[in-house]
């Protein structure tokens, strides 16, 4: 019967530890991958919502601030524009 020397025993021990560690990692990988995908999906969703909501929230109509007034009717009296400007200035 062949007796193992210390070096052979150490190599065999390291190999056995590595195999059990690899099996554990392989078993846990699907759960880890699913969590990672879920996290990335949620982050992408939040980024998309922010990308859409920010320009809408920053638009003048969303805040109630109007810098200009346009009208395609020529028959509007000047006093009506004065009253409108007064109302707009008093709101701010």
Structure description:
This protein has 92 residues and is an all-alpha fold. It starts with 5 loop residues before the first helix and ends with a helix. The chain contains three helices and no strands. It has two domains: 1-58; 65-92, no CATH class. The longest helix is centred in the middle third of the chain and has 53 residues, at 6-58.
What's the short story on this structure?
The protein has 92 residues and is mainly α.
Helical segment count = 3
N-to-C SSE series?
HHH
Provide the gyration radius in Å. Answer: 35 Å
- Give the termini separation: 97 Å
Number of domains: 2
The profile of the biggest β sheet is:
none
Q: What characteristic shape results from the CA principal axes?
A: rod-shaped
In terms of DSSP E residues, the strand content is: under 5%
DSSP E strands, number: 0
């Amino acid at each position: 019967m062949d007796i193992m020397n210390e070096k052979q025993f150490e190599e065999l021990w390291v190999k056995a530890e590595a195999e059990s560690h690899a099996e554990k990692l392989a078993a846990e990988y699907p759960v880890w991958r699913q969590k990672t995908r879920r996290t990335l999906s949620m982050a992408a969703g939040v980024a998309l919502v922010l990308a859409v909501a920010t320009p809408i929230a920053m638009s003048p109509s969303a805040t109630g601030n109007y810098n200009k007034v346009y009208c395609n009717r020529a028959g509007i009296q000047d006093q009506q524009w004065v009253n409108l400007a007064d109302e707009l200035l008093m709101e701010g």
